Amino acid sequence: MKRLLAFVLILCMLPSFSLAASKATLPDFKSFSRNQLELKETEKKDYLTLEKFSGSQSLIISLAKAYVELLTSKYDLDMIANFQIDYGSYDRVNYALVYDGSASMGSFNVFSDEHNWRCENCQVFLQYNIVSSGNATLWVYFRPEFNYKDTGDRYDGSSNSNAKATATPKPGTKTTAAPTSRPSTTSRCTTCGGDGQVERSCSSCGGDGERDCMSCSGKGYNNCSGCYGSGERRCGSCYGTGKNGSKRCSSCSGRGYKDCSSCSGGKQRCSACSGSGDRNCSSCSGRGTKSSTCTSCGGDGRR
Q1: Which residue from 216, 134, 166 is spatially nearest to 34, judged by alpha carbons?
Q2: Which of 98, 99, 87, 94 lies closest to 111, judged by CA?
């Protein structure tokens, strides 16, 4: 019996050893970023770990790009999707990555039915907001199977969106000093023409600067509240009977109702849009276009 119990105990311990041995390494984003962003919260679930950071928009853009480059160049991750979604008052940039190494790794799905996109079987997912002013927000999602730790990789400290991920040498490692100066290889960003801002049609209104009036659903009128859209109201002289005593009501000619004086055919012109059915788009203030920081250059106009 003792031998059987010992054998069962060994079998119970084997999965934990196997899982520990199979963990892939993922560099800790907070350490990689040199603590330049504020870690707002960390949330852990059985299948997912989420870190939420806050900081300047230009730095977040640079860090996200450098971190994705590091993961794809050194840590067996492939980027399967990079896309930008217009949410009206802000844009959101997304990076979806999958692990293609030898370790055993679960996955998760990220999707939006509203904006019709889906990325399945991811192991790492980054997204950040592009806002008009103030601090931006960066989210880092990853599977808990990763051995998430400080690997010594460090962001080089530049706010340029093309900044590279650099590895900090371990103690005792022999390195070759880089030249003290290098010729500049930056050029004007072709995406924004060097302005650092990208102007595009507003997706909320399709570029015409107007949207259907919410008060009347774009019809230009509303049903009369006095007669409930019927166009007629009960006669006040005969209370809808059509008679005054034994005689026909002269006020309504015996009909029992009269045309509503507050509307025309049961409809009232919408006061919010003056009957036009349209109002200025609130997302673009009626301009039809929206300006946002160029994600290709991080807003500095150079690449």
Answers
A1: 166
A2: 94
Strand, coil or helix: 65? helix
Quote the CA–CA distance of 282 and 213 in Å, as a whole number: 11
> Across-strand partners of 188?
302
129-166 in b/e form (b: 16+ CB < 10 A) is bbbeeeebbbbbbbbebbebeebebbbeeeebbbbebe
User: Phi/psi of residue 59, each to 5°?
Assistant: -70, -40
Q: What is the DSSP letter of 73?
A: H
Q: How far apart are CA 49 and CA 243, in angstroms?
A: 77
DSSP labels for 202-242? -TTTTTSSEEE-TTTTTSSEEE-TTTTTSSEEE-TTTTTSS
**End-to-end alpha carbon distance in the chain:** 71
State pTM to two decimals.
0.50
Considering only CA atoms, which of 114, 116, 118, 140 is closest in space to residue 127?
140
Amino acid in position 136: A
Per-residue pLDDT tens over the stretch 90-143: 889 999 999 998 888 888 888 777 666 777 789 999 999 998 888 899 999 999
| One-letter amino acid for residue 220 of the chain | G
User: Which residues are CB-contacts of 133 (< 8 A; sequence separation ≥ 6)?
Assistant: none
CA 15, CA 7: separation in Å to the nearest integer? 14
